[in-house]
Amino acid sequence: MKNILKAWFCVLSVAFSCSLPGCLSEDDGAAVEPDFGSGRISLSELRKIPAGTLLSDDIAVTATVISDPAANNLPPGCFFVQDNSCRGICIAMDGAAYARGDRLQINVRNASVEVNDDGLYLLSGLSSENIVLLSSGDNPESTPIKANELSDYESMFVRIDQAQVTLSDQNKPFSGKLNFETEYGRRFSVYTYGSAGFASSTVPADYGYIEGIVSLVDGKRVLLPVNPSSYAHLTEDRCTPPTPQFSVPEVRDMDEGTVPDDIEMTATVVSDGSDANFDDRTAYVQDAERGVMIEFTAPHGMAAGQNFTLNLKGTTVSAGQPFRITGVDPAQIVKNGNPQEVNPVQVTLAQLTKDDTYESMLVQVTNIQSAENDASKTFSENTLFTDSEGSQLSVYTAPGSVRRTNHVPPAAGSVAGIVTATGKTPRLTPRTNADFSLPDKGTRFDGTEVIFFVPDDTQDLFLSEAVHGVAADGQSINAVELYNPTGSPLDLTQYMLVLLFHDSNTDLITSVAKLTFENANDFPRALSPGETLVIVSETATAMPDKFDKTRYSYYKEYNPSSMPVLGSKGNAPFVLMKNTGSPSVPSWTEIDRVGVPNVLDASKLKPGETDIDSYSGKYSSNPAAASKLERGWNRGRTWTRNPGYAGRPGNANQLTEATLNKGSWSALADKKAQYKLDIANTACDPRTSGSGWTQVSINSATSATSAKQNTTLGWHIYSIPMTD
User: Fold this and answer.
1) Which of 341, 622, 647, 674 is the most exposed place for a label (fewest CB within 10 A)?
2) In whole angstroms, what is the distance from residue 246 CA to residue 147 CA?
3) 189 pairs with which residues across the strands?
4) Is 632 helix (H, G, I), strand (E, B) or coil?
5) With left for phi above 0 and alpha for psi between -120 and 50, is residue 377 left, alpha or beta?
6) Tens digit of pLDDT for each residue in 384-421?
7) Radius of gyration of the chain (CA)
8) Is residue 536 a contact partner of residue 566, using CB atoms and an 8 Å limit?
9) CA 459, 465, 470: angle at the middle one, nearest 5?
10) How far is CA 204 from CA 32, 77, 130, 157, 401, in A?
């Protein structure tokens, strides 16, 4: 509970005035008011104080009783007052018996402002010592309002003209809730407590005006008749109003059950079944203020953005989560024009957890990211997202949705969709993939830079980058990078990397260097999804000592003498082989390569020669393609997979000069870098969405920017400074 300081009220002695009929005026002939201390406060100012506040100072409010204790149509233990500021309030005070028209001065010290279970704002904690009767018999006048203005006049004595009870509620007793309508088709609710002296009286069927106090019952606005005089003016012949036009909020205020009367609601469809995340018998619709779910008896056939009018007669209104309208025949729908684009309402996760304001509406939740345990997994029925404060949002994906095979981007962004549940962990149901605004490259809330990894289980381990070059000191620079694009770990012991040496004069393969990924060489047994393995010759002195090797999943340096596959400084091709046989009887098949395309002279193979060792002297370079490639291959080039060809296995018999230079492989710039630490290193990134890769610039090996280029998923980055 908070304390109210005297400073709040030290200037509140100014008189308030209001021109509305029914507001109370000052009476010059009234009794002298006692001095309650430092100041006065109006009910208008009092109602601005937050609920749950304890009032600690001697502050006076002057108001007149508008309820009738004799008729007793009141919330238990309460009575109503209003003042000349044109506002009213409910006072919770057991045993109070102040008569209608009593003018009171109330000291609010030690009282508190509260909101009861019905949602009614009230003043509680008062005793008889806090209240002084100033005068009696000051009968208040009602303030005329429209039926749709009840929310603006809480705890006020008002009058609604041109009113009558609905046909469906004729001949009923006042007890409970009754539906009234106006000549213009507006509807409102009249409520009578069972304790009221007129609760058993039959409601008049005639037309006229009705008075009462605006209150709340079960969170909904109602008019409480003060006594029988409140409905004594329903004496004229009934009118025939037009079909009521309800807004979505008005529909949500309706009582549960079958709708007995003609009531029309106009709204716009915001759900979309094209990705099978919504079925064709359910639609989420909204107007400018609220949303609601509709369940149809047959496919509704409405596209997203379709505005329509629905006659609710015979349908069923069901409260709960979500609030829904059921039993709707598509024939009850009248389409208004063609579908139009509907923009989502921008909200934060905090707004969704607060209340149900946005239930069934199209929103875009900003500043969220996938939860740590769900990042980069495929979408499940309920995928968790969080905001920067740790609040959670469940993103729903139906079992039959096309999105169930998609992976969850890890970077922070926003997600749009329909709010299908509210509460501590609200649920959002996106419509299509277009509702996700999560960048392929971005950051998480902790500053970690991440890249969206999309597994492709149709591919296999492949060569993603390779280097042949000569450093400034004449040392060879040889390196290779392997990448696992799949969604499963790959057993590296079932793969072999081969370097094919050939004679520059004869173009014949003269020898091979093989690398098997054995534990003895300190290689990982398996390469996890999205991980890279980079192998570099340790004699590559152009590799900066401070280069951020943490960017790679696995980074290994080896001496070419112990690993000949890294020993060449010529144009020998790298070939990736896979065991397509068994561990005990291996059968090695080429699945990828980078380098000079070669042509196998099959006529020189002996029967049964399938091993890579058999290539010597029979596998020659293709002179037509070699000349162009060798010019780059011998001048310190890094070769990377081209965008659009990521993960496509190469084959020596399929590669031509055209596909080599314009297809699956591409060389970086001739003068890749200078032998300095402040160079701009070029990186190739396979974790982008879609079919291709994107080249990104890493400013400096030692810069703060490059230091952040590390993700829990690993990077496909390899670049090495080289001279001409």
Assistant:
1) 341
2) 12
3) 179
4) helix
5) beta
6) 999 999 999 999 999 888 888 777 888 899 999 999 99
7) 39
8) yes
9) 160
10) 44, 29, 41, 20, 55
Q: Are 310 and 264 in contact (CB under 8 A)?
A: yes
Chain centroid to Cα 36, Å, comes to 53
CA dist., res. 254 & res. 585, Å (int): 76
State the Cα–Cα distance between residues 443 and 367, nearest whole angstrom.
11
Residue 252 φ/ψ, nearest 5 degrees: -65, -20
Q: Which domains does the chain have, with CATH numbers?
A: 2-135 (2.40.50.140), 143-242 (2.40.50.140), 257-335 (2.40.50), 345-447 (2.40.50), 462-707 (no CATH)
Tally the C-alpha atoms within 13 A of residue 25's C-alpha that lie toward its C-beta. Answer: 8
Distance CA 103, CA 30 (A): 9
| Residues making up the chain, counted from first to last | 724
Element (H, E) at 44: helix 43-46
CA pair distance 508, 519, nearest whole angstrom: 33
For residue 465, the number of C-alpha atoms closer than 13 Å in the C-beta half-sphere is 27
pTM of the model: 0.62
pLDDT, tens only, 67-120: 999 999 999 999 999 998 889 999 999 888 899 999 999 999 999 999 999 999
Nearest-5° Cα angle at 432, 440 to 329: 170
